[in-house]
Structure to design on (912 residues):
């Protein structure tokens, strides 16, 4: 690739001010939040304002064989948005308009750069709700959420991003701006290509608009139910008891002793005094008896302490341990974030294996989990600058992925494959299924320009 | 293709008794319930017992260039399972074992020939529920439901087949038996290929096993709420009022005067005396106030009569009009079944256009609708043997498809494209999107042996 003719072509195709060549500015866009994943050196950062500009960028890149790495807010945790050498970083955060909220049809149409919390706030203005709630929701974009099929806390009851995306516009590898999916509640005309793009991590095309389904805002304020347990296994039993009882909480989170101590050290909240492991459940039906039943499950599973909120403020306060856990751990050193998901009955077994790997590899592993889904986030923390510890952490990371697969689970429940899970995904899917991935990638991106080297 | 060497190869690859060559027997399998769609002449019917036999059939067909038309129970309404000339009909109805129901994980693993109602009954034995409920549920198979992404009455609250399929095994065009998707609640490792196969109507491979998510059985018996209206538009207003009120019924069906009269003529139920159009709503939360609110919506929209059930038996009886409408109409002559879906706010407009097309083309069009979803089933009825009427019906059929697209809807909400909606789908999706379909079809079925001429 000759850089000058390419930049000239790009400049000719876009209005002034859309291309950034300053290395320092570009550098700030060159990686996501996966601190451990490698990032290459881009040739330019492009900030399109509309789909037509995206199309022009894709056309120029296709013609000159320049790779494109699309990105939203860069809050990903797998390196999916990290630059590859010689790429154009296509920053979609400036395309941030909510184009439509239709209360009668209960849907919204947004540009990809709309921030998750902004959509939630706008929907709330109509008594509506966009459920997917990744922890990054104050910063992450609907485009990024769609590209990674983001999950969150309320998935256990309300599902993931995939369950809310009705349709989208994308720019394909053929340089066409096309519409996939629909606005209607149902539709089976042709293959589910909108669904195929959800979770494809920017490897099949660039999403320029998304139509999402909205729900009515839950009428009742949520209630929080807390159970404290003296071991991970006991907490795992609490999760199993909830499943057996047929209760569907709108959140069922686990926070372990490492996280509780880290929060205590930071905020002096005395959480670790409650017990070794907390389960945090949420009931959003307004049914007090359901909250009581959830608490009874925790008690029956051997909770050493349990309580439930009496008002909305207390409900939120009791969830603080969950919200503060990740930033509290980041204070202790670089965090390598896992994202395995196992059959929920195997949560205690997987947690036991994670503890064993921590010992075997001599690393600290804290655990946050969307326990009700079986989606665990072991957080491997090493002292800053300790290269040996970092090496051991990497080994523990891969061992945990293999165990998740061995237990019939997956190497990524909601964060995506990006760069960090490529080996794990190969182990999970096998060569035949990977061959199908490659065939589809070639069919939709024949020139191989979209986010090369990611996922597959 | 030389027939004898192919049949010899097939015979060598399968145990005795799996291949049927008798033309009369084959003929009974050569078409689905789309009476108006053409069907070709197959060379053989094959009834495999397991995935390995499916793999052997696919390998033999690929080697000899013989098309494969997979089929479940043949209850489809778009001709998707109709034979093409020279094909092998691959009848999967004999692979009908429920392999596993896991109450803790709330999932079932089934062979493709398991009948929908059988799965529902087996799940109910564990207090669990498989929601997708196409009208064909007493006969249709989970494999066919998956291949067509079948809907049903409860979609309005619980979604379609796609929302319950976690994973599957398929035999690909490369002759490999592979596993797609997962058993866990969440998972984003690689492209959503399981989702791509849902609704692909047998054009990408043969599904040999399906893993579906189950819900808890609703605890409360359902309540039925009936509203009778004196026009389609008034009933459409009733639907809009329900949406505005934020009520989520577990069914919201519309049955028009033609259907009511046909049921009355057959069963003498006096339904048409209630009003011209019935809305039938169902509430499954056990909340009597919600049933009352639904009734109030009907009344406020101008219902000339309304009532709600007091017990489970009455609730079921009030739904009789919906259940009996289709067989009652079939008594009157061949039925050409539409399946358009429009934004639900445009249901009155679409119904008005359907009425206009009935007049313009001088045909009878009855209407059943999953009104809460905007999914309408105009049923075009013509006298048996009247070729001119059949011609006019065909014109009305295509005009209705075009109007659905013009209103931002789709030509098929839940029945699939098959043969009957190919032109309509082209009009809906456009050439660029069809090109993507063809690219994906070629990638997964390079020899083009799976259900050729269907969908795309």
């Amino acid at each position: 690739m000759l850089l000058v003719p390419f930049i000239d072509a790009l400049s000719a195709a876009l209005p002034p001010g859309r291309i950034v060549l300053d290395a320092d500015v570009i550098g700030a866009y060159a990686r996501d939040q996966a601190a451990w994943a490698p990032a290459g050196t881009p040739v330019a950062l492009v900030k399109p304002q509309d789909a037509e500009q995206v199309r022009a960028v894709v056309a120029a890149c296709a013609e000159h064989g320049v790779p494109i790495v699309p990105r939203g807010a860069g809050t990903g945790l797998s390196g999916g948005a990290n630059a590859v050498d010689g790429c154009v970083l296509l920053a979609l955060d400036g395309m941030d308009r909510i184009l439509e909220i239709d209360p009668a049809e209960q849907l919204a149409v947004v540009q990809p750069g709309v921030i998750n919390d902004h959509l939630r706030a706008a929907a709330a203005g109509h008594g509506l709700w966009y459920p997917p709630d990744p922890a990054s929701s104050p910063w992450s974009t609907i485009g990024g959420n769609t590209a990674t099929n983001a999950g969150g806390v309320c998935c256990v009851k309300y599902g993931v991003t995939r369950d809310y995306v009705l349709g989208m516009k994308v720019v394909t590898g053929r340089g066409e701006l096309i519409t996939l999916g629909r606005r209607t509640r149902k539709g089976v005309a042709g293959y589910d290509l909108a669904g195929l793009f959800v979770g494809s991590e920017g490897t099949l095309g660039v999403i320029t608009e998304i139509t999402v389904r909205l729900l009515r805002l839950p009428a009742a304020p949520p209630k929080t139910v807390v159970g404290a347990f003296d071991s991970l296994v006991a907490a795992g039993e609490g999760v199993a008891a909830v499943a057996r009882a047929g209760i569907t909480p709108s959140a069922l989170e686990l926070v372990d002793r490492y996280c509780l101590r880290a929060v205590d050290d930071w905020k002096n909240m005395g959480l670790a005094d409650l017990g070794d492991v907390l389960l945090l459940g949420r009931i959003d039906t307004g049914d007090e008896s359901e909250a009581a039943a959830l608490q009874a499950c925790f008690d029956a599973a051997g909770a050493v302490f349990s309580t439930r909120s009496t008002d909305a403020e207390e409900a939120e306060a009791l969830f603080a341990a969950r919200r503060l856990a990740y930033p509290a751990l980041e204070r202790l050193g670089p965090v390598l974030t896992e994202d395995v998901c196992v059959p929920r009955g195997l949560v205690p077994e997987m947690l036991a294996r994670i503890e064993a790997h921590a010992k075997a590899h001599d690393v600290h592993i804290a655990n946050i989990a969307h326990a009700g889904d079986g989606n665990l986030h072991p957080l491997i923390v090493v002292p800053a600058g300790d290269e040996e510890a970092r090496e051991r952490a990497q080994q523990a990371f891969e061992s945990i992925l293999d165990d998740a697969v061995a237990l019939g689970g997956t190497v990524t429940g909601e964060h995506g494959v990006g760069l960090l899970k490529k080996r794990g995904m190969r182990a999970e899917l096998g060569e035949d299924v990977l061959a199908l991935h490659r065939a589809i990638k070639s069919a939709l991106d024949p020139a191989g320009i979209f986010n090369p080297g990611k996922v597959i």
About this structure: DSSP finds 16 helices and 19 strands in chain A.
